Amino acid sequence: MPELPEVETTRRGLAPLVEGRRIAAIAIRQRQLRWPVPRTVDGIAGQAVTALERRAKWLVWRLESGSLLWHLGMSGSFRGWEAPPEPGRHDHVDLQIENGHLIRFTDPRRFGALLWGGDDPLSHPRLAGLGPEPLGDAFDGEWLWRLSRGRRASVKLFIMDAKTVVGVGNIYASEALFAAGIHPRRPAGRISRTRYDLLADTIRRTLSDAIEVGGTSLRDFTVGDGTPGYFGQSLQVYGRAGAACPGCGRAIRREIIGQRSTFFCPDCQR
Predict the structure, then answer these.
(1) Which pLDDT tens digit goes with each residue over 40-49?
(2) Active site residues
(3) Which CATH superfamily hosts domain 4-123?
(4) Residue 77, CB-side half-sphere exposure with 13 Å CA sphere
(5) Is the dihedral of CA 31, 36, 39, 45 positive or negative?
(6) Domain ranges of the chain
(7) CATH for 141-264?
(8) Whole-number Å distance between alpha carbons of 251 and 184
């Protein structure tokens, strides 16, 4: 599933193509995505896109009146075409931008979503109640430490909870915990403030580095120009079970935590 860096990479790729431009037409060929596409979306032709933002893993298309909320799901991607080919069976939505590109949303597994966000998209039920952005000022070690008091759940599940912080998915949780030297099974409530300061910094740095190089090379993910991301080339532990730890040389271990594969070094992470 595309994680926060992939979604932010997509936003940065699309923004120059749509911000400040009018939507000339919309074609919805498949309404049955993760949730049915509401009929309200059909009426956006003629509106300008005033801003393209990201909240957690959602893309927020702010319009002159109302907004679109778009989620990539497991396999969604956008392409911008000047001369688009005929749509394929998985090409579900086209947005024709006035005097510009055709933006096409493709989603083979149909776990993505296109919803109507209204005039206050951040209050939409899918976005309301989410935790702070990991790259924003509201997220730091103090926040993690206060929220974790009394928590018995593993620290990995704690930081993957969108009410704790948004956008820290399975891959980047493993990477950030390795960088901070924290064992993924350690109870969240038994980690010191000092170690949470370090973890907050490694989460921020891991995600920022991934954004700069275009996101992880997930099989089904492409960025705005259709090219895959390349952060997968620099992963330290994720997907490397049995390989030598870059810190101590011991074999990286894989375990299942919360039904997700988790990769860590048993020596470097405590």
Answers:
(1) 999 999 999 9
(2) 2-3, 57, 260
(3) MutM-like, N-terminal (3.20.190.10)
(4) 20
(5) negative
(6) 4-123, 141-264
(7) 1.10.8.50
(8) 16
